[in-house]
Amino acid sequence: MKLVLYHLYPDLLDLYGDRGNVLTLKARCRWRNIDLEVRQVSLGDDLSLEEADILFLGGGSDREQNILGRDLSSKAGDLKQAVEEGLVVLAICGGYQLFGQYYETADGKKIPGLGIIDLYTVAGRKRMIGNVIAQVTDFDQNKAQLEDKVKLNTLVGFENHSGKTYLGPGIKPLAKIVKGYGNNGEDGLEGVRYKNVWGTYLHGPLLPKNPHLADEIIRAALKRRGYDFELAELDDSLEIKAHSAIVGRFG
Ligand code: GLN
After folding, report:
1. Half-sphere exposure of 202 toward its Cβ, with a 13 Å CA cutoff?
2. Domain spans in the chain, listed from the N-terminal domain onward
3. What spacing in Å lies between the alpha carbon of 31 and ligand 1's midpoint?
4. Which of 18, 25, 177, 230 is the most exposed place for a label (fewest CB within 10 A)?
């Protein structure tokens, strides 16, 4: 069985170990005999998404977001269509912000986003830095089973951003903040869940300490390709320990 992951702008968007999310997805697939091929796509590269199962974008500073803005807008139409058709996407911080309508920088410049999800981001005056614990509001699939087996319904990670993201009406967050700032430090929300897109401010990298989310993403990609079977259970005792340690320390 094979899946293909497109890593978008790996050379520009890779903060705080974001690449570790790709490694985690690859490892968790490999342990189940699923071959996850990783293809890197950057500035000027053609992005044809017919073969893509998962798209990953990491975080970047305002500077990098500015650099790739124009390139991204040339890819926006294809991306939007693919997302509407169920492409699985994990987008972190700067990458997450790019899915929205725009990012307004501190000097008032609006960097247009992909316009795929009704959200927008405004640069704030203060940096929101620190550990985050968030309660997951909605695991779409096998929620009861996940909670039962893994007993994790929180996400943990690290945030460092000044952008404040606001979700449009009817757009669902990924989670509710228990500790930290999340989307904007005001409304208690963290990230976004839209179709098969997961957007979040959590670095760390996110997935090694949140194996339940990694599997949710793999499951969504398999389902979209018509593979309907239960993922083999893995020994996640170390991952769960790491997760629980953070909840215990900061929760
Ligand atoms: N430029 C964004 C901000 O500071 C994203 C930062 C990040 O990806 N960590 O809000």
Report:
1. 32
2. 2-228+236-250
3. 33
4. 230
- CATH homologous superfamily of 2-228+236-250 equals Class I glutamine amidotransferase (GATase) domain (3.40.50.880)
Residue type, 82: A
Q: Are 55 and 5 in contact (CB under 8 A)?
A: yes
Residue 52 in contact with residue 87, Cβ under 8 Å?
Answer: yes
* pLDDT digit string, tens, across residues 144-173: 444 444 467 899 999 999 999 999 999 999
Among residues 218, 245, 238, the alpha carbon closest in space to that of 142 is found at 218
CA atoms within 13 A on the CB side of 93: 29
Question: What is the 144 CA–ligand 1 centroid distance (Å)?
Answer: 34
Give the CB-side neighbour count of residue 44, counting CA atoms within 13 A: 1
